[in-house]
Amino acid sequence: MRRFILSAVTDSSLLPPGIALLERIELLCRTGVRRIVLREKGVSDSDYERIAEDFVTICRKYCVIPVIAHRRELAVRYGTELQLSMDELRDDPDITDEIRYVGVSVHSAEEAKEAESLGASSVTAGHVFATDCKKGVPERGLQFLKDVIDSVSVPVYAIGGIDIDVIDDVYKTGASGACLMSTMMNSPENHVRSLVDKCFDINKPVFTKECLALYAVTDRRWLRPGEPLASAVEKAILGGVTMVQIREKDLDRRSFIREAEQCLRICRSYGIPMVVNDDVSIATEIGADGVHLGQDDISPREASRSFEGIIGVSAHDVKESEKAFEDGADYIGCGAVFSTATKSDTKALGIDGLKVIVNNSKLPAVAIGGIGIDNVSSLSGTGIDGIAVVSAIISADDITNTSKHLYSIVKNVIIK
Ligand code: TZP
Ligand code: MG
Questions:
Q1: Pick the catalytic residue: 314, 321, 361, 403?
Q2: How far is the C-alpha of 19 from the C-alpha of 23, rounded, in Å?
Q3: Residue 231: what pLDDT?
Q4: Among 11, 43, 348, 382, whose Cα sits 20 to 30 Å from the Cα of 202?
Q5: In sequence order, which residues have a C-beta less than 8 Å from that of residue 102 and are 6 or more positions away?
Q6: Which residues of the chain have pLDDT under 70?
Q7: Phi, psi of 328 (to 5 degrees)
Q8: What is the Cα–Cα distance from 37 to 90, expressed in whole angstroms?
Q9: Is 404 in contact with 240 (CB distance < 8 Å)?
């Protein structure tokens, strides 16, 4: 699925008086910009090192993708993406063996092809529109951008004179994102927020039963120490998770909202639906893609009066599943299939119990409870559309690889 990534590019000479670069970077992270390219000119090596370290720390805190421009050694040291000019890549083509993500700035379709053949993982094409940063150089326009996109298979980011008025036009060319410098450096926070919101809308996922294939449900009690929830969610998505539910029974409303908002930004940037457990008002407030309701929560019918989005319901028997359908739910969660330490107040349905509910359900169904790599294949033939997993994913030593492994099995389990 194509996604559209909003990136900021730094240039501290464009900051309003009295604002420090790192302060601005933190504001961009907080507001929901997805990727930031550190590209400072006229800074000494020692200052650059110091800025880079703080820059990466801030980005990681907010789960924002840090990119370092030009300074290969710093990108290696901090494990970030590297952004290069075409000439820098030509001078050092082996760099793509050492650094996994190397983006290259290009000014023509030919350069883009050359960058791709030298191993670039993305290209940034510009400048698309007139900009003060390139005074006197004519804009290359949207057709140029389309030509670049058509000539390579790596993601193409657009740069140059982009602001909220043209974001839709840029998206429609097929670009994978937009990089903004002056707007990101000096416009008011609410303007940056409008850009973030716009990209949120562009990336809003469409729910289908395929989204249920590998459904990760969070529970911070299972997280490895020091692992932020949003980072665990991103690792799971990179491993193939197709939907996410934020289910944090021990968080107060404020903390839940803060965590869920961060996770939503991650999910949106990958086009993955994110639903909130239990609380329709939180789902509404943060603009989540859906809610998951238990039998003790408000009914889907009631929820849909105030909430527009995916509504999932837990169903423990055929009666509850029928009711969920009549009430307008979009899917059911059936469980616990196996007994589980994650939810002790539930009786295991077993595979036969699961089959009865799924076979009688008019809604897509996801199985939950005690499911992991060792038992997922036993669910073949039950008719489920996917599995929902808490501990097996969120507590894994390697969340991405565990998700990949689970996905490779579940994709055969759900073939009907
Ligand atoms: N509903 C039924 S079982 C369960 C929920 C929320 C918890 C599943 O957690 P795990 O760790 O995947 O067994
Ligand atoms: Mg509930």
A1: 314
A2: 7
A3: 94
A4: 11
A5: 81, 82, 83, 84, 89, 95, 96, 119, 120, 121
A6: 1-2
A7: 90, 20
A8: 21
A9: yes
Beta strands in 224-287 (DSSP E): 243-246, 274-277
Q: What is the pLDDT of residue 346?
A: 81
Which whole-number Å values give the CA distances from 219 to 212, 248, 254, 406, in the listed order?
A: 18, 5, 16, 18
Q: Directed axis angle between helix 141-151 and helix 109-117, to 10°? A: 30
368 lines ligand 1 (CB under 6 A): yes
What pLDDT digit, counting tens, does each position of 68-94 carry?
Answer: 999 999 999 999 999 999 999 999 999
**Is ligand 1 within 6 A of the CB of residue 370?**
yes
pLDDT tens column, 146-162: 999 999 999 999 999 99
Q: Any idea which residue has 């239990």 for tokens?
A: 278
E strands present in 193-267:
214-217, 243-246
Instruction: Return the SS3 of 338.
Output: coil
Give the C-alpha distances (Å, rounded to integers) separating 311 from 26, 50, 276, 291.
34, 47, 10, 5
Report how far residue 236's alpha carbon sits from residue 69's, in angstroms, rounded to the nearest whole number: 28
Residue 319 Cα distances to 94, 295, 393, angstroms: 62, 12, 30
Whether 314 is catalytic is yes
Q: Is 390 in the pocket of ligand 1 (CB under 6 A)?
A: yes
Cα 166 to its chain centre, rounded Å, is 23
Q: Is the CB of 388 under 6 A from ligand 1?
A: no
Give the pLDDT score at 1: 57
What per-residue confidence (pLDDT) applies to 269? 87
Q: Which of 342, 373, 384 to mutate to test the pocket of ligand 1 (most atoms within 8 A of CB)?
A: 342
Q: How far apart are CA 329 and CA 196, in angstroms?
A: 29
- Selected catalytic residue, list 113, 343, 355, 404: 343
**DSSP letter, residue 50:** H
Write the residue with the smallest CA distance to atom 8 of ligand 1. Answer: 369
416 is catalytic: no
End-to-end CA distance of the chain: 23
Considering just the CA atoms, what is the radius of gyration of the chain in Å? 23
3-state helix, strand, coil in the chain (%, to 5): 45, 15, 40
Q: Say which residues have a Cβ less than 8 Å from residue 260's Cβ, sequence separation at least 6.
A: 246, 248, 274, 276, 282, 286, 288
Residue nearest to atom 13 of ligand 1 (CA): 370
Q: How many residues does the chain have?
A: 416
pLDDT score of 2:
65
